[in-house]
Write a structure and sequence with these properties.
The radius of gyration is 18 Å and the shape is globular. It starts with a strand and ends with a strand. It is an alpha/beta fold. It has a 6-stranded mixed sheet, with helices on both faces. The chain has a 3-stranded antiparallel sheet with strand order 2-1-3, with no helix packed on it. Strands 4-11 form a two-stranded parallel ribbon. A hairpin with an 8-residue loop joins strand 12 and strand 13 (about 245). The chain has helices spanning about 40-45, 60-75, 120-125, 140-150, 160-165, 175-180, 190-195, 205-225, and strands at about 1-10, 10-15, 30-35, 45, 55, 75-85, 100-105, 110, 130-135, 155-160, 185, 230-235, 245. The model is unreliable at about 1-30 and about 240-248 (pLDDT under 50). It has one domain: Ribonuclease H-like superfamily/Ribonuclease H (Nucleotidyltransferase, domain 5), CATH 3.30.420.10.
């Protein structure tokens, strides 16, 4: 059961819904507005329990990339995200992504784009329509991937779309989603998010953040318990933000 919060007039109250009814909110009163947890509310929650370093893998050779790719494809649905070295000067264009993350139920793989031997494997995963990639704000990631690699991101489920279909009109990022679904706080340090993701040797803090950003998205989707055929697959083949329900 999930505990969703609604705001009707100025009164706050709770309603419990079955997990698999996320997309079925048409019977709710139009005067009720679903709201995500606020930052102060999230700050009071227990921390999200993510992957530890021993479950985070960074392939460095062709055999390792091949093994990781086979395991990712076999998973069928993975948490997904990218990281780029930030730009701090107006007008500068990011050369990212520099890291692409795939999270499975018990581990995560981080592909670094400076490793040329891994690019064919990465491109195969990115383009695959059969591999469902779930995350937040993935239209932006898709644009960066297209600019750098010239390939379209296939099989994309943006959780912002999922929550918006259920009546959450405000932007729903990973912290708000984890707070809402698990009543836990997803740690997000600006010092880490704005660090140098292009460096060849990532720090332990970078590894933990990157892996768990993707892992949290997968765990949120699993908690919502939506059938695969009901997932809103985004059509990004024409740089569009339109979503097509069903994975075909």
């Amino acid at each position: 059961m999930l505990d969703f919060r609604f705001r009707g007039n100025d009164n706050l109250f709770s309603v419990s819904l079955k997990q698999n009814s996320l997309l079925n909110s048409k019977h709710l009163s139009p005067h009720m507005k679903k709201v995500a947890p606020t930052k102060p509310e999230i700050a009071l929650l227990e921390p999200f329990v993510g992957l530890s370093l021993e479950h985070i893998h960074v392939p460095t050779s062709s055999p390792e990339f091949a093994s990781a790719t086979a395991e990712i494809k076999a998973a069928g649905i993975v948490g997904f995200d990218t990281e780029s070295k930030p730009t701090f000067v107006t007008g500068d264009v990011s050369e990212g992504p520099h890291v692409v993350q795939f999270a499975l139920r018990d581990k995560a793989y981080l592909f670094q784009l400076h490793r040329a031997e891994g690019l064919p494997f990465l491109i195969e995963l990115l383009q695959s329509e059969q591999l469902i990639k779930v995350g937040f704000d993935l239209k932006s990631d898709s644009g960066h991937i297209y600019a750098k690699l010239g390939v379209n991101l296939g099989g994309v489920v943006d959780l912002n779309t999922v929550f918006r279909m259920d009546g959450y009109h405000k932007h729903m990022g990973v912290r708000a989603a984890v707070g809402l679904v698990f009543k836990q706080r997803f740690p997000k340090s600006r010092h880490v998010t704005t660090s140098n993701w292009s460096q060849h040797q990532l720090t332990p803090k970078q590894l933990l953040y990157a892996a768990n950003d993707a892992y949290a998205a997968l765990k949120v989707l699993e908690a919502l318990d939506l059938p695969r055929e009901d997932l809103p697959i985004m059509d990004l083949s024409t740089r569009s933000s339109d979503a097509v329900v069903g994975s075909g």
